[in-house]
Design brief:
Length: 71
Amino acid sequence: MTELHVVASTIDRIHIEYHCPACKNTHRHGSMGSTRNRVESRGSHCTVAKHDVGIHITDATARPRSDGKPS
Ligand SMILES: [Zn+2]
């Protein structure tokens, strides 16, 4: 059950990061080696809100290592 949807702030081939509206921190999840636009459903690491989260990787998500080319 996904209860929260967020847009990822950054993604590289190792991690996805997003800003959490519940605890105001940044949470990090594995990116499975891909920086493509998609939605990842994960159990949140949040200590405030024990929710599942839909992490949206979009054109607004930064690819800091410029490795966002399609694979
Ligand atoms: Zn949180």
